[in-house]
Amino acid sequence: RRVLLLGEGNFTFAASLCGAAGTHVVATCYESEEEVSGRGRAAESIRRLRERGAEVMFSVDCTKLKDYFLPEKREFDCIYFNFPHCGRKTGVVKNRELLAHFFHSSAEVLTEEGEVHVALCNGQGGTPADQPRREWHNSWQIVAVAAGAGFILSNVHPFKAETIHGYKCTGYRNQDKSFCVEGALNHIFTRSTPLPYFKPMICEIELESRKVSFQVPQVLVDKINRGFLELNSNHPVQTVKEKLTAELSQAFPLQNIDYCLSLLHQGHLNGVCHSNIFWIILSPEEAPSSEEMSNGLANAVLFSHVDFCRDTDKNGWVNVQEGCHISKQYYLRPSLLPYAQAIIQRGTFLPGTLHVLSGPVFRKCLITPYSMPVFHEMVFVCAVNRDTENSCIQVLVNNIKTSIHSLHRTVSGFKLNINLQEARSFETTELNDFSAFESQVSKIQYFICMEVDTSGSCEKGSCVGIIRTAHYELGSSELVVVFASLNLDLLAMLICGISDWRMLWTSDTRFLHQFPRGELRLFKSFSLYPPS
């Protein structure tokens, strides 16, 4: 590890780090060697550093770091800047400017996964970690200043000067006055992921040995084909699915039917506003028939497509407008329930067996931390005799509740409540992710509500599933089919303490690194106190 220390006053902090196994220290100071050498302990610390192989540099400006190092010597794993200050009684604005230039300069000499440590006196940073906290305009606004250079605050902890062997804070330049380090905080910054730019994308899917294509809606370009539910995935959504399936397989014979589930539906919708659907249109020569659509789409292939027009391109792909003929309209699936119903109607359904479907579903919505335009739905389907309908619902719900409780206990000690609420007790606006599809034949009976607190009420965003029922005639028997639909994304968020669904879909590797294969853990945010 190459460690760069800036603004050393007497080099006592650098001397305390020097000598650690596998660490090469480069200690720098803003003043000249003559100015520093007369300071107490400075000469001794410089001698110790040089004896241990460290580099000592003088007259180094922290805002122009790349000027002092050859290109091959610029990559540091960690940069320390303790108690930066412009000198004398400069105000907060000047010190903010110093930090801004410092962070931009650090970005040019830091490794991709490196850290920047900045120690500030209590109150200067302007974050909730400061106690007491200054008013925003009177602080150094360190999180916002760092963000301007592409850094996020990933950790903050007390700067305990008394635990650093031999360390003595020098304080203001040219003054025999130390900073007050009581309550000081060390702020640890890492690089944020760059704001992505997504090229327009065409999704090509194979149907009956024929390829059809459609333009992916812009908001979903980075959501299609992410593979969260693949067998080798360590994403928490896949872990929740696997553990739920394993628990329920102990109570029911279980059959997975995830294969060949099409991304597209065609035809009329019931009980859903058309403006909430992601409409897709295929060119006339490519559009499959309704019979072909019912057989399912498979083998999704993605490729970037940049040569297209917004309204109509050379292949006939256009943006769907209100009033287009419905037979030529397709839409991204808002639910997996139609597949379950189609399986029953085709007679490929085994009564008494719990059939399981899962995959991403899509619908337009008002974006909130718990309301998302795409999420992974898991549907359980079981057919029973009419006189055992209620007992089947109870057994299914009890097993789902037991499974969720079991998952939650492995993650945190917070209190967990799971309630079954009748549909008539819910307002339409509370249906959340499950209002996107209303079946012609099935009826919502109950909502599965989950809360990870002690309030005792079903708060907005905590509805994680629904129970539906439908009556079918299979042969000479009239059966009741029970459908249980769960939002796996919302379940994973509530179990792992993730406060925003967008974190589930991030491409930042620091997210998945927190979840080893098959394990659920309490999520620890790597971006603290983001400015809004």
Hey, roughly how much beta strand do the residues contain?
25-35%
Total tally of structural domains: 2
- Name the overall outline: elongated
CATH superfamily of the largest domain: Bira Bifunctional Protein, Domain 2
Major sheet details: 7 strands, mixed
Largest beta sheet: what is the strand line-up?
3-2-1-4-5-7-6
The overall average pLDDT, rounded, is 80
Percent of residues in helices comes to: 10-25%
**Low-pLDDT regions:** 293-327, 426-441, 454-461
Gap from first CA to last CA: 34 Å
Number of helices: 12
* Strand elements, count: 20
CATH class of the largest domain: Alpha Beta
CATH architecture of the largest domain: 2-Layer Sandwich
CATH level-3 fold name of the largest domain? BirA Bifunctional Protein, domain 2
Structural class given helices, strands, pairing? alpha+beta
Radius of gyration: 30 Å
Pfam family, one: BMT5-like
Protein name: FDXA1 protein
GO molecular function, one term: rRNA (uridine-N3-)-methyltransferase activity
Domain 25S rRNA (uridine-N(3))-methyltransferase BMT5-like: 4-170
Question: How would you describe the overall organization of this protein?
Answer:
This protein has two domains: 2-191, Rossmann fold (3-Layer(aba) Sandwich); 227-276 and 330-513, 2-Layer Sandwich (BirA Bifunctional Protein, domain 2), CATH 3.30.930.10. A hairpin with a 2-residue loop joins strand 19 and strand 20. Helix 6 packs across helix 9 (389-409) and helix 6 (236-248) crosses helix 10. It has helices at residues 12-17, 33-37, 42-51, 92-107, 142-147, 236-248, 290-294, 337-345, 389-409, 488-496, 501-504, 509-512; strands at residues 2-6, 24-28, 55-57, 76-82, 110-120, 151-158, 185-191, 201-207, 210-215, 254-256, 264-266, 279-281, 298-304, 329-332, 354-362, 374-385, 417-422, 443-451, 463-474, 477-487. The protein starts with a strand and ends in a 20-residue tail after the last helix. Mean pLDDT is 80; it is low at 293-327, 426-441 and 454-461. It is α+β, with helices and mostly antiparallel strands and 532 residues long.
